[in-house]
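Example pasted here:
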Amino acid sequence: MATVSLRQWDYESSLTENFLLQTKLTTLGTPDTMKTILGYFVNIRQNTSYSVSTPSSFILSFDYRTNLTEQFKELHGFNNISNTNPNETLETKKSINKIVLFSEPIKNILQIQLRLKSPFIQGDFNVNDFGLLYRVVRDTSTSTHDDD
């Protein structure tokens, strides 16, 4: 049986360098049906750092894998420290509801495991919810109609 360890974040210490939140391997409710992953959503709450009056600082990476033997692959990452993508703004609000749609969906997924990790979070930081935006792929029994 697995051992579960739950800890309350003590943000007064102000910095963690090993944040990890990982889901179980899931079929998203339909084990025999392929899915297409269109994007993800996350809801984050950040309060001010204990030493300054600005929002807490973070770097987040969303990763996935489709079986337990493969390495995790990055889905997307974002932060509120530096802006490397000119199409995105830094996340400085206290409550962040982020929805990311991928330009290239991840196709033909039967099962998936998600991982949210960070090498750097400073201050009072909460992950309230995160999940996938996906659709079930139709089966291959389609009809073709000719105009002839």
Summary: The chain has one domain: 16-136. The first strand starts at residue 15 and ends at 16.
